[in-house]
Structure prediction request, 191 residues.
Amino acid sequence: MLILIFGILVFLGVHTLTTFRDMRAKLTAGFGLGGFRGLFSLVSVAGFVLIVWGFSRYRAQGLAPIWTPPIWTRHLTISLMWVAFVALACVNPAPSRIRGWLRHPMLVAIKIWAFAHLLANGDAGGMLLFLSFLAWAVYDRIAVKRRGDFGAVRVTTFTRGDALAIVTGTLGYVVMIFLHPVLIGVRAIPG
Prediction:
């Protein structure tokens, strides 16, 4: 589980670093914008790889159960994940009512993803992973609001961007249901 913990610290640590705007400005000035983005991407990918590797090793060694989620939490997770995928699809900069309502769709998607998976996973590694991402997304939303970034502009009508987000999010959701056993090793829909 140490690899998983280290991966979480690296991945979320580098993402937390970007919330400190003075430090980010100094790094951008030192490395240049392209250099900063390249270094940020490299460290992020390294952290992500460590998370995947660490979580797969943890699962291979046997889960450490903390609680047994009731079956209804899996059904709720499946429903919430559709909402998370639609929110994620709203990252597209096209103006949309959903995007304006969410304000920061990527953070909303991460919070829903993490919360939904906390409901369905009662093992130590899963709870550590999903609780870490949920806590980070809440922290980042607070940091974004404190610096005066109120997110996407509110739109009063349903737009083409909304339709695109719903269709794209739904397609991503369906694809992930089929790929979840291959990529994650767990069936998304029990049966």
User: Anything to note?
Assistant: The chain has a mean pLDDT of 94.
